[in-house]
Each structure stands twice: as C-alpha cells, then as structure tokens.
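Lesson 9: reading folded outputs for more than one chain in a single document. The general rule is that every protein is listed as its sequence immediately followed by its structure tokens, and records are never interleaved. Here is the first one.
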Amino acid sequence: MSEIRYEEADENLTEVFLNVLEKNFPFYQNFKFKLLFDLKKRVSQGKLVLASIELPGPKLKFFSRDKIAAEGYDFIIIVDRKAWELSGEQARTKIIRHELRHVEISEDGSVKLVGHEIEDFYAEIEANKDDPEWRRKLVVLVSDVYEQEKIMLKEAKAKAKEKTDE
C-alpha cells in the first residue's frame, strides 16, 4: 500500500493565501484555487521545490469538483508541508505570492501559467529586497530536515534488522 502524498491545506495556508490574493492579486478572486500540502520531498532540475502551481486539465478538473468549485478548480497550488512548517509568516506570504505570479490572464480572458522571467520574477526581487536570500536559506533548512529524517529512518531500519537477527 502506498503512502498518501497530499493533504488538504490547513487554516493557516488558506488564510495566508486569501490575504495574498486580496492584497496583491484581487483580479484573480473569480478563479477557484485548490490548496494542497505535499508530504514528500520533491526535486525538479536538481532543486528542492517549495511550492508549485498547476493548471489542471479536463480530467483533473472533473475529479476536483466539490461544493466550492462545482466545475472543478482552475488552479492547484501545492506547498511542501515541511517548508510551510519551517517558515515564518513573511516567508509563507512570499511562497504564495511567488506561485501566484505564474498566473497570466490574456486579453481574451483565458489563463495560462508562465515561467520565471529570470531565476525569479522581477517583481519578486523588488518585493524581497528586505531579505533577498530568504528562499535559499529556507531551501537549505528544509533540505537539512529531509536529510536528517532520511538518516534517522536508515538508523531505525538498521536497529530493527539487528533485533530480528538476534
């Protein structure tokens, strides 16, 4: 049996998301966003993923229908649970704000996701002048926690094996 990978967002993630949406992206308030925590480490292109945003296809939209989004969700934001737990309120706001910068609305009203202008978004560099290294520091912290957990699990398995060998 496989472990569950995702879980629903908690009240704090929802609250931070709604605050960022209201303050920085009020024109996105008509879209439906599904917020999830990723319970496992995710690496893309050799880098730890703190969060991501997805544009669901027709099948996922169908499966995501619920009381909030009768037609399914327009976007899915997935946040690394450990990164969220190890972040302060400012970093949490920055994570969500960064993900919402990937959304682009065309003149005809259609939406798409866009990549970074550079390693980040110019607007995020400006907004993060107070702590330009926040992401790198958080990635190091979260990576260290994942590595420590991996070591502890390996040690626990070795001890369990020793006991069964006795």
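And here is the second record, again sequence then tokens.
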Amino acid sequence: MSERKNVSRRPVADAPRRAGTPRAATRLRACVVIASLRGFDQLSAHLEPRRVVALLQEFVGAMADVAVAHRAVIDAVLGDGVLLLYGVPSPRRDDTVRAVRAAAALQRTALALRNRWLSAGETRAAALGLAVGVAAGEVLIVDLRSGGGRHNTPVGEPVRRAERLCALARDGETLVDEATYASAGARLDGELTFTPRPLATRGRELRGAYRAQARRAGLLIVPRRAADAAAPLAG
C-alpha cells in the first residue's frame, strides 16, 4: 500500500465556502490507520475475475462496516486495503484509543472473513493475513479538486509512518508507532497487549514500534490441505 493509486475517497467534512474562493489547507492532530490484506494477489491469480470482484467487495464492505461502527473517516479504499482517519475534521482526546480499537476490530473481521472463505472451499485463503499500521501526529488536510468535486486528503509524517508500519507488519499483525502507544497504551491496558517491536530502519525511518494484540484471539480455521500454508495468528 505504499503506492496510493486508483483511490476511491469519501470527502471529509468541510466548512462551506464561496465558489472560486481559494481553500487553505488545515493542520490537525490525527491518527492514521492503514490496513492491507496480504496474500490476496496470490489468491486472485487462481480465481475467475468475477470471483475476485466478489471477494474484494466482501472484504471492502467488511472493512467499511468496522470503520462505521468505530466512527472512523474512510479516507481511501485501495483494492485490498483501506486508510482510516481519526481526528478529522475535529480532533478528540481519545482519537488514538479509538484508532487502536478499530485496528483490533479490523483484525478480528479479517480473520472471520478468512475463516468464512476457507469454509466455503477457498483453501488458498489460508495464506491471507491483515497487516495494519497506526501512527499519530500532525497532518495537513489538503483539498484536491477533481471533476468539480472536493477530495480532502491527509499528508504528513503520520501518513508516511502508518504506511511504513503497514509494510513492515507481518500477516495478522498490528504495529503502532511510539506516539500512538504513548497516548493510548495505558488506557488500553487490560484490553490489549503492547509488545516492543524493534525495526531495522535507516536514516529518518522508524526506530521502533509496538505490536498491539487483543488479549483474546479469534478462532483460526485451517483445512488440512492448507495447513502448511497457513500463517500464525498475530492479532
């Protein structure tokens, strides 16, 4: 998900302005959640196009349901991934807490979807796993006009960190940055566990992160024929 192409966006709330009036970008404290379904490319290579579309629609719909239930702004849908925002258009003190809870819910939902596909006979779905990155900080909300419409998009270090964490996360793993952990870790004690996760990075890249995992993991279904291909549940 490092390349954000073919994006379908839902515009975030914006104050009314007169036609032709320049729009100023807005700086906000926000929390960014990026999730990507690993292994879907390999799965889709063995399926008919109609089946691929059906599975993608099911996945995106399930992720959108989680976003709505957890009151996130769906900033982007990128095929087998989503980008959610907390703190837009109005920051709240518990944005990081809500973002990490949403990440845990995304993991549970992706696992349930994986199990459903396995039960339906899609044995290659055993190799699927959701990777999630969560980062907090100041973002710049920029209004990008397209076809006469408005598309507010976030730019800034938290977006880059969330993308990087998602790329570094293992299948079924959620990684949060230090800012998110500092803000939400203590308030989620007893609900989630946070384990330090050293990262091999260079230059200005991330130096470390925390692996967030629900204390009660979901049920992993693995058919015998797919047992060797199944990835361990990380949460």
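What the second record shows: The first helix runs from residue 40 to 44.
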